[in-house]
Amino acid sequence: MKLPEEIKNIINALSKAGFEACAVGGCVRDFILGHKADDWDITTNATPDQIQKIFGENARYENKFGTVVVNAETENPRLKEIEITTYRVEEKYTDKRHPDVVKFSSRIEDDLARRDFTINAIAWDGKEFIDPFGGQKDIKNKIIRAVGDPQKRFNEDALRLMRAVRIAAQLDFKIEEKTTRALKKNARDIAVVSHERIRDEFVKIISSRNAKKGVEELSGFGLLKHIVPELEEGIDVTQNKHHIYTVWEHNLRALDWAAENDYNFETRLASLLHDVGKPRTKRGEGLNSTFYNHEVVGAQMTAKIMERLKFPNKIIEKVILLVRYHLFYYNVDEVTESSVRRLVKNVGPENVDDLLNVRMSDRKGSGVPKAEPYKLRHLRAIIEKVSLDPISVKMLKINGDNLIKLLGIEPGPKVGYILNILLDEVLDDPKKNTKEYLDEKAAALNDKSLDKLAEMYKDAQVKTREVAEEEFEEIKKKFRV
Ligand code: ATP
Ligand code: MG
């Protein structure tokens, strides 16, 4: 077992100057586990001033918690910036988020005692482990245990509630009993933590292999109702004859499939949320209950959930699309190229693969043995076939400037209407995407009134949105969704 060269150099420089220095925290934990550490942190009895003196220009002191960032000369991006933190004891946390004061200490034991879990409270100088809380043993037994009194530790800093569940999911560890009890007792304090910090932990849970277990724990501990309460609406909500699981269980199993197959984050979240609209749209009970429009309601709920958690708009938009269109229809004999083109247009060509993956999660999560590999292959083939067909006005063989010149009209809404009406025809038949045809058609459209064009434009929009669905009516009726 060896420290990375870059870390050893920093530790050596500090000890040559007469100070103690060790790697500490998540990096030591990951190293013992044989995982790649994301970031290496060093702790020392040198004060920020003393650290800066040793590393000179390469050191940057940027926060009041006593952390100095040192630039290392390395090709490894994870080791370019290393955080060196002075030993510290933490005092009171009045707001359950930040310590009121930060006090430096000269003893490493103090610094380890302020850390959250035993597995994160091990220091290592490359030769010896300093492990006063039995972290190595807990790593061996795969246990998350609070350092000291769990009740007090969660009460100090409520983010630790999420960190426990997140680290347990990432490492597939079990949260020890006393720690679990304190977690449940303090769960409601998660509400004082900022949405951004909750989101970051939530993303890590969903991105881990044990995402399903993580979400189940969030719920079991009483945290989920403060984060994504909408998901819990599905608990005990039974479905109709096409399903064997409740909505909650089905959503979780869909997520599990997505995690098992290492789908990207958006696809995982869409798998988890794809049926989130079902409880609110359920009509009737038993084998014949229905869930009409759950994908539309679910997409709206997805938007609310993700906006609340302050996700970037681009990610929100993508997950909404995946939830909104997860019901797309594809029956080998019935699906037309025109409807596949409109599906691709709706969901965006860049999202098609992910949409198919959400569909896989949906089917696998429903307990259906096969995920219809033949049908899916067939659909993929059609998508491939239509992939070069025009699906946006940008891909037409005529553009706004051409149109203005050709028709001698002013820039304005009329141009957009005509282009979209032309696109509608081309979506039905890509062979019509020639300059000759479109010029002629545009000239004919130019004779119509602006109101008439506006109406045709609106019809075309609706058609694109609905055509897919019209063809899906059958499946929707069949499955009562
Ligand atoms: P990862 O880097 O994989 O997300 P980590 O455990 O390394 O996980 P960091 O946020 O990098 O988490 O924190 C580094 C170390 O700082 C932790 O291992 C832990 O010792 C300590 N730490 C981090 N957050 C807290 C907290 N909220 N309360 C107490 N100690 C913490
Ligand atoms: Mg870390």
TrEMBL record:
The reply on keyword Ribosomal protein is: no
**Coiled coil ranges:** none
Q: Which residues form the HD domain?
A: 247-361
The record's Gene Ontology biological-process terms are: tRNA processing
Q: Which GO terms describe its molecular function?
A: metal ion binding; nucleotide binding; nucleotidyltransferase activity; tRNA binding
Which CDD domains does this UniProt record tie to the protein? HDc, NT_ClassII-CCAase
List keywords of the entry alphabetically.
Magnesium, Metal-binding, Nucleotide-binding, Nucleotidyltransferase, RNA-binding, Transferase, tRNA processing
* InterPro entries reported in the protein's UniProt record: Bact_CCA-adding_enz_type3_sf (IPR050264), HD/PDEase_dom (IPR003607), HD_domain (IPR006674), HDIG_dom (IPR006675), NT_sf (IPR043519), PolA_pol_head_dom (IPR002646), PolyA_RNA-bd (IPR032828)
**Cofactor(s) this protein requires:** Mg(2+)
Q: Which domain of life is it from?
A: Bacteria
Residues of the signal sequence?
none
Family named by the database record: Belongs to the tRNA nucleotidyltransferase/poly(A) polymerase family.
Write down what this protein is called: HD domain-containing protein
